[in-house]
């Protein structure tokens, strides 16, 4: 992957995101320190920040707020790992132009789910009447997808108990689904951080269910010289 240039002409440090299950977090932090040097560990409003001796950083974020149930441990990493290991139930709404998946999961286990295929055309650079016809067709396809996904979500969520909703995939489509009247009974539930996923198929949903219950780790490599 190419690096963008900094104002001084140097390439910007590369960054990436990973998901680490609570029981594996301490081992991940140990390996990060082994690769980058001794760590400073700080408590930030948006998570636990690791600053390594070589300049690499990692921001560790819990999958959900403590909501009066904080994690236990003698340090920040232990408490974060403990919090992420709590068995909390999440509803997932994953939507992209090529398909959708809705599910209820806890600790990476899917308790109820539905995946399906729909299609919304990509944008086009064409102009004039062709562009207008395309825009109407695309809008109709998107509307049909939102209706279908909202109805499937209603069926999956009914009879299931969960605390949070996690949207993923295409932000606009996921937001439209969650705003649909069919999902009004769950409109008051808190939403977790958006999850970037590929077209939701069974394998994608399985990974998303695990990631939804894991610590989100944003790593930035050391500055390049």
Description of the molecule:
The chain is of the alpha+beta class and 225 residues long. It has two domains: 15-86 and 214-220, no CATH class; 89-210, eRF1 domain 2 (Nucleotidyltransferase, domain 5, 2-Layer Sandwich). 31% of the residues lie in helices and 26% in strands. It has five helices and nine strands. It has a five-stranded antiparallel beta sheet. It has a four-stranded mixed beta sheet with strand order 7-6-5-8, with helices on both faces. The longest helix is centred in the middle third of the chain and has 30 residues, at 128-157. The radius of gyration is 20 Å and the shape is globular. The model is unreliable at 1-6 (pLDDT under 50).
Biggest sheet: strand arrangement: 1-9-4-3-2
Please identify which CATH superfamily of the largest domain we are dealing with: eRF1 domain 2
β-strand amount = 25-35%
Residue windows where pLDDT falls under 50 for at least 5 positions: 1-6
Overall 3D shape: globular
Helix content: 25-40%
Compute the number of structural domains.
Answer: 2
- The helix/strand series, from N terminus to C terminus, equals EHEEEHEEEHEHHE
Q: Report the total helices.
A: 5
Would you count the extended β strands for me?
Answer: 9
CATH architecture identity of the largest domain: 2-Layer Sandwich
CATH fold assignment of the largest domain? Nucleotidyltransferase, domain 5
Average pLDDT score:
88
